[in-house]
Design brief:
The chain is an all-alpha fold and 74 residues long. The model has no long low-confidence stretch (mean pLDDT 96). The longest helix is centred in the middle third of the chain and has 19 residues.
Length: 74
């Protein structure tokens, strides 16, 4: 699908690409934390964050918990 067509479809649905990307990153991070012992720094890099601190802020905004607290609770 051409990029512009994709953008129009998202616009019609009232969805931003960044929201879809954030949701996918959050799900992948949760899956990796739940099913592996991969360090949080590596998880941050694997899902597209250049800095672990940025990943931590993103995760806290989305879940209300830090990644390490979330992982410990699961």
């Amino acid at each position: 699908m051409p990029l512009r067509s994709f953008q129009r479809r998202l616009s019609r649905e009232g969805v931003a690409f960044s929201d879809l990307l954030d949701a996918a990153r959050l799900e992948m991070a949760k899956r990796l934390m739940r099913h592996s012992d991969v360090p949080l720094t590596e998880i941050a890099m694997a899902i597209g964050f250049a800095e672990p601190a940025v990943f931590s802020r993103f995760f806290r905004r989305a879940t209300g918990q830090t990644p390490s607290a979330w992982r410990a609770a699961v």
